[in-house]
Amino acid sequence: MTEIIDGNAVASEIRDDLTDAIETLADAGSRPGLATVLMGDDPASQTYVNMKQRDCEEVGIESHHVDVDGDAPPEELYDAIADLNDDSEVHGYIVQAPVPDHVDYRDVIRRVDPIKDVDGFHPENVGRLVAGDARFRPCTPHGVQKLLESANIDTEGKDVTIVGRSDIVGKPLANLLIQKSDDGNATVTVCHSRTDDLAAKTRNADIVVAAAGVPELVDGSMLEDGTVVIDVGVNRVDADTDKGYELVGDVEFESAKEKASAITPVPGGVGPMTRAMLLYNTVKAASLQEDVAVDLP
Ligand SMILES: Nc1nc(=O)c2c([nH]1)NC[C@@H]1CN(c3ccc(C(=O)N[C@@H](CCC(=O)O)C(=O)O)cc3)C=[N+]21
């Protein structure tokens, strides 16, 4: 039987576990604050922002939001960032990607105060992670690690094939999984659009993480029996539904499920974990800035 890993359930447990830490902070007189910044009106980004606000409410994190006009000059976004860096009620914030084409996301990230960088994208935080001294683990890779842990899937000595080399998922996840630690110790292969014979790499894997942003790129024919399959893809494809679209992963679920020992669905897999780990990083940011020790799950 293939185990369907329930990301909504694991994310809900993490939110529960975070409430203790949030109470500890409240007792010390501070409430963690998370802000989202959205430049432009990408509909997917708007959905995520709304979901994050609901998550915050549920656990007792104060949520803030800043909209920047999609046609505004980059400086307007930089000003919003400077304001958030100065705002003592905001312990963490993220600038929703993608930003409009006339803005360079790297220039944006460099302006975020690293202690408030709950995405973990600032070069200082990337460097710390690579050096094995992560301050904020990027939310999606961290969520993948927590999902594996929740399903009792040990990564030690395992062959993990990551499909996708993004700065947000593939690269940081590869770095975390090769680290000498209980949630690392894996042998990692990172594949991408120029990889020769992708199927040979996925067939060799004990664990496949699909994070390429290509709908249904990985199917059952590319997997050996017993593989653990983690689907990071959240692709909106046009469909005849109420919303006019359907959410499709980077894995062809039905055929992959026939081979997998465990698999994450889309929706309801990695997505909710990404949001839960954002709350986690926000609590950690508040703990660091307020100098109040907390127990994190
Ligand atoms: N600075 C920045 N940080 C991010 O972390 C970031 C970003 N930009 N840009 C876009 C991606 C994507 N992302 C998702 C988060 C949650 C779900 C999620 O909760 N998905 C639900 C359902 C979503 C739905 O129904 O549309 C699920 O998979 O079950 C999906 C995708 C965060 N990202």
Automatic annotation (TrEMBL):
Coiled coil: none
GO biological process: L-histidine biosynthetic process; methionine biosynthetic process; purine nucleotide biosynthetic process; tetrahydrofolate interconversion
Domain named Tetrahydrofolate dehydrogenase/cyclohydrolase catalytic: residues: 5-119
Superkingdom of the source species: Archaea
Any GO CC annotation of this UniProt entry: cytosol
Positions that bind NADP(+): 164-166, 234
Reactions the enzyme catalyzes: (6R)-5,10-methylene-5,6,7,8-tetrahydrofolate + NADP(+) = (6R)-5,10-methenyltetrahydrofolate + NADPH; (6R)-5,10-methenyltetrahydrofolate + H2O = (6R)-10-formyltetrahydrofolate + H(+)
Sample GO molecular function, one term: methylenetetrahydrofolate dehydrogenase (NADP+) activity
Function summary: Catalyzes the oxidation of 5,10-methylenetetrahydrofolate to 5,10-methenyltetrahydrofolate and then the hydrolysis of 5,10-methenyltetrahydrofolate to 10-formyltetrahydrofolate.
Quaternary structure (record): Homodimer.
Protein name, per record: Bifunctional protein FolD
Provenance organism: Natrinema ejinorense
